[in-house]
Amino acid sequence: MRLRKSARIQQLGSAIFAEMEQWKEEVRQQGMDIIDLGIGSPDLPPSAQVMDAMGKAVADPGNYGYPTSSGGLGFRAAVSRWYEYRFGVNLDPETEVLTLMGSQDGLAHLAMALADPGDMAIVPDPGYPIYHASLVLAGVTPWIMPLRAENDFLPMLDAIPTDIAQRAKFILCNYPSNPLSAVANPEFFEKLVRFAREHELLVVHDIAYSELAFDGYEPTSILQVDGAKEVAVEFHSLSKSYNMAGCRLAYMVGNAETVQALGELKSNIDYGVFEAIQQAGIVALEEDRQGTGPKVAGIYQRRRDVLIHGLRDAGWDIPTPKATMFLWAPIPKGWTSRQISREILYSTGVVVIPGDAFGKEGEGYVRIALVREEEVLKDVVTRLGRFIAEQKTKGRW
Ligand SMILES: *Cc1c(COP(=O)(O)O)cnc(C)c1O
User: Which of 13, 66, 244, 317 could form a disulfide with 238 if both were Cys (CB 3.0 to 4.6 A apart)?
Assistant: First the structure.
């Protein structure tokens, strides 16, 4: 058999994650206790009511037929009520809400639904890996938009050449952002909507972390901008807000033509999310809306403080994020992101992700996920404190 992997797969850029798995395996074989702050998967369970609703729905024999690809109206209506409550945004559940098997599903397929091979789309660097990967899968040419600390990790829209803006089918943004933990204010979203109108392209906004915000900060939706629905869609997920990452439940809202196009593509690919999961999702959204659900943001805020304060005392000054479950930590001069991530893992057992895993602009940083309890993070501070002290004696910090 002359089987080989497609060129597409080879361009996906998952090599660095595979390499890290090897590092971890080696360290594990040396008998070291690993603390994995690499993965972005919440370590907490959903609320008891959510799990209970799922259990009941699982026991209902009526829930085992094929669901519909676009999602039941019950779940889409719950999404619409939640958007109204949280952002004051009115959405028609029939035409402006599409249920997804995780945002990953929608983000992976969107380029295929909206663009043809040879078309162009604008994506951020650093960025969540699926943004770039989805373009590779669709044969769409990426135009890379660098996000840099000196501009608060917001894109310089004025620096995008006019011909690129005219040619691109969509521009993708993500605030609060993974891996940068950067946030955007309403003025930025207004500017982005103006930019989209001017160049007649779609804005795709990923707002997966809107509910993981700290110190009273409340992220806003791009759909709060007047007329945004004409030019924008937003992806939101139950994975992070309600600790339901394993359920694979998310949605895209906003521009009806885009909802229709992605829905049409997906109806050829999948038959939707298991009804029991949608039932659990409705409970999670309703609990949140009624203020009876668990507040996960506070837990991440305390974890953030343990690491930020502890590491600052040890000599690693990391900016305090206003949101998300990540620290985007600048590394000392003289190291590459990969070198220091490897060295930290081999000498302390702590897993962090080299920033360049999210694009070449991520060089000079590592991402640390707040996915273990405070006690474990105190241990991380101790281990990294020893590492930093040792590097200082060698003049490497
Ligand atoms: C975790 C995450 C999501 C959510 O993905 P799901 O497929 O819904 O679990 C979306 N966007 C970003 C940037 C994320 O980090």
Answer: 244
